[in-house]
Amino acid sequence: MKNIWKLLYPDVCPFCGKVNAKGPCTDCLKKLSWIKEPMCKKCGKPVGDEQTEYCRDCRERIEDGNCWFDRGRSLWTHRPPVSGSIYQFKFKNRRVYARYYAETMKERLGKQIQKWKVQAILPVPMDKWKKRKRGYNQAEILAEELGKLTGIPVETGLIRKRKTSDAQKSLNRRGRAHNLEGSFQVERKTGLPERVLLIDDIYTTGNTVNEAAKTLKKAGVRRVFFLTISIGQDI
Question: How far is CA 96 from CA 83, 102, 142, 174, in A?
């Protein structure tokens, strides 16, 4: 049965989609833009130089007293071939890519997860209307794969997403933040883990993660960290 499965669904490169038994092909591996220093000390976004402590978005949140997540990290900057891979994963039902993303997270960021002493993994939720339309929540699939590899329990129902009025991609940074206010809800009041790890596919301005962290902390969670596949660059 395993051989038949391999024939029907062969291993492919998660970036270009070509059949490749070892996952990512050599050409795509050469094009990956891994996150490295210098980076924002809060969200891990690449910054211009070592003297820059925070990216613009985190700096403004900290100055406004509105930064709710503790720390975050990502694997790659959001540019080809990573951006195309995430598009296929997110909109074209390439759920199989989640395994490679999770394996890479554990390999590259496993020690960071241990250092954070994470007690539960939480996928950033999608509102039920959008999830029904798409058929799945890509963050949930990624979280489940990471949970299997790390042994950390995954809680998919702890935080819920209400429907937002506008698509986030159509708004500017402040518009996104305003659009997300009050959009999350914690589903129970007792037995909450103290240290959680939010999982999402892309980090852009960070408003989604920050609003989710705000909701969790107001409900009683002490520390909120996050991991994403890709992240934008400080402009």
Answer: 16, 11, 10, 34
Cβ-based neighbours of 3, under 8 Å, separated by 6 or more: none
Q: Are 46 and 233 in contact (CB under 8 A)?
A: yes
The Cα–Cα gap between 101 and 8 comes to 22
Helix, strand, coil share of the chain (percent; to 5): 40, 15, 40
Q: Global pTM?
A: 0.90
Average pLDDT over residues 116-125: 98
pLDDT value at 72 more than 90? yes
How does residue 233 score in pLDDT terms, banded at 50, 70 and 90? confident
Inter-residue contact 23 to 11 (CB < 8 Å): yes
